[in-house]
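User: Modeling request: complex.
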Amino acid sequence: MKNSRLIGFLPWLVVGLLALFPLVESTFYMQLLTKVLIMAIFAMSLDLLVGYTGLVSFGHAAYFGLAGYALALMAPKYETVSLWWSLPASIGVCALFALITGTLVLRTRGIYFIMVTLAFSQMLFFIFHDTKLGGGSDGIYIYAKPTMKLGEMELGSLEKLENFYWLVLLLTAGSYLLLRRILGSSFGRALLGIKVNEHRMRALGFPVFKYQLASFTLSGALAGLAGYMAAVQYGFVNPEILSWHQSGAVLMMVILGGMGTLYGSVIGAFAFVLLQEVLSNQAWFGIAAKHWQLAMGIFIMLVALYMPQGLAGLAQKFGRKPAEETSDE
Amino acid sequence: MDFAFFLIQLLNGLQYGLLLFLVASGLTLIFGIMGIINLAHGSFYMVGAYLAWSLSSMTGSLTAAILLAIPLTVILGMALERLLFRHLYQRDHLYQVLLTYGLILVFEELRSLIWGDDVHGVAVPALLNASIPLTDNLSYPVYRLAISGVCLLLAAGLYFLIQKTRLGMMIRAGASNRDMVQSLGIDIKLIYTLVFALGIALAAFAGMINAPLSSVFPNMGGQVLIICFVVVVIGGIGSVKGAMAASLIIGLAETFGQVLVPEVAGMIVYVLMAIVLVWRPEGLFGRA
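Assistant: Request completed. Predicted assembly structure:
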């Protein structure tokens, strides 16, 4: 009893500690942590699909990248754009795209679904890569960060690292809470039911397709939130942000942390980004750092073979509780 | 568009489609029979192309290079099946995706370490380095015709192997019921190893014979892989016949698309896929 209350308190402690971070650290680690948090939102959005709806998407970077492009294309070139409308608009574009692609891809299952989500994300990649629309393979620069104004008052310039960091932290915590609420509702229960046994849920009279489409759209919208923030942080977008390597990386974060747990996605994003930083650190690995993807590839394969439940699964295994029942595929 | 020009595009489209078939048939066989989704399939196409380049610059002959490279890729396929893929048969597709994604990264980095990151050209074999004149100023390269011919032969061989031979019968039986085949005393593990190696070798062979046309460059496997996914989705997963039909459709659509509507040519294959998904989600030749 006492333990579970402690565990319920834990996320808030983490958020609180993270909020204090800018007071002790500066620039490099703050930027890194911002990146981790953005990836955490991205990974949570995918966990909603993979871990809670039972849909393995290998094209999730499409929505992430699309939001970045939406911002870059909407923002006037040398002036600032307001966060208040550009963020909802970017997310809206992603939600719409997810709704359209969702109606198509959800006609398929399993291995088809994996291939088709990948193919549609590649379609988007080639649209931005091959046409002039998004600056081709060079992409577009976003010269000024969006502004947050209340009337005439600036709430805090996002050009300042810590302000941006706090905003992202707030959005990460908000996304987590939102997803927890949704998954705890009857809608979320129905999604889990669909994941475990789609036919049973259909027989019980649930409109399975609509539930899945809603989950797919919500997931795309959240990925868009992450993508928007990533574009703001980097100050540019190029086709790489919606490449399938990005889709693979985010799937890896979800599995590494432990899918179907939500907090696992946060842990996974943290571990993955950090590992990436460490492996590509030239000061530590010298020339080998140039080929860090080799080590990453081997690591991913080892996780796939030996750690199917991810870090969260390890924690459960060695913790008090026996691992919760896993879904029968 | 006059007739000679149309003929050239038609032949190009068929040649491209047949080449896609070599890669896609392996992909669809490995899925249909073993239930494995192999994202790294495109990497074997790349390995084939790089082997063709490095061995032909060593031996001075593409033919010799191909003859040397085929056994190498078969061995590579068998080794990978034994070491890695065997552990994934009973697992969720999710882990197959993850493992083969990791494998792509490993292959790309090994390629970079062994062969570097440069683009290389491969010479067309002297015997086939000729053109057939069609009109005064248009001609068609013999090498492309040769590729189409070889692909057709292989497709016929594949059909014969699966439909008419005893081994093919075992493969088909293994696809529908692994345990039953096993208890009838057939070494299903060996059959899986063979099918996997066959699929890998087909993809690598496609990379080898196409190397003189496409040249050899980093990440060349990725694009082929995605197009082959589209082929498999349109044709129906596990169906070799479907892979053939879809390969030709995609090959022709992309070739003519690039000539007629170059701005949106990249989109055409995905639009085709979307249409098939709406109309027949299980693919043209798929089992519903």
